[in-house]
Amino acid sequence: MPAITTAISGLVIHPQKVVGDSRGLLAEMLQDGASSPLVREHGIGNVYASIATGKHVARAAHFHFKNHELFYTLTGIALWLFHDFREDSPTFGQNVGLILGFDRPDGETKHDSYLLADGKFAGVSVPAGVYHAFWPLSDEKVVTVAVASVPHDDSDYDRRKPSEVPGFLDILAGYGMDIPKQP
Questions:
Q1: What distance in Å separates the CA atoms of residue 49 and residue 95, rounded to the nearest whole number?
Q2: Would the N or C end of the chain have less CB density within 10 A of its end CB?
Q3: 0.90 surpassed by pTM
């Protein structure tokens, strides 16, 4: 399946193969394994899971100076927000929002959705310099898996609060999150 570009340069959605039957679903994350363009371009320095346990409580909420990450949201439903902080980028200052997870959220959403239950599983490729955070929209725990291009390094993070990212408070208010809880 072809990649989908977003309003942020280098922030790319990679639709993934999903097959299933009455027993459940199988979702491939790196369909081409080591020959995947994502692995060849950026390498793998770490693979980890992030588990959000509270509805509307931000997770991630940072950007990296060097690390390029590929995220998959496996359970629950999450609003992911991205902001381009790369001053040399043609999309500097742009925001992108996505709904990622398993089931369709209650009510109407204002962003594109990529949901396992709809067979629209996606990996989101996040370049260094692009801020990323997610907020669970469901009561269910949100489990994400990330593939990172470099091993963990505390000096590679800018951990500003979501309230300090231009436009995020307005987007969150549209989902009934007037005062976001900080990580």
A1: 24
A2: N
A3: no
Cβ–Cβ contacts within 10 Å for residue 151, how many?
10
The structural domains of the chain, ordered by start, are 4-19+27-173 (2.60.120.10)
Token pair for residue 28?
């491939």
Where are any strands of DSSP class E within the chain? 4-5, 12-15, 18-21, 24-27, 46-52, 59-64, 69-73, 77-84, 95-101, 112-115, 122-126, 130-136, 142-148, 157-158
Q: Find how far residue 62's CA is from the centre of its chain.
A: 12
Residue 9, token pair as written in the block: 């340069």
Query: Which of 151, 150, 133 is closest to 142 using CA atoms?
Result: 133
pLDDT of residue 127: 96
Q: What is the b/e burial string over 36-52, where b = at least 16 CB atoms within 10 angstroms of the residue's CB?
A: bebbeebebbeeeeeeb
Enumerate residue ranges in the chain where pLDDT < 50.
none
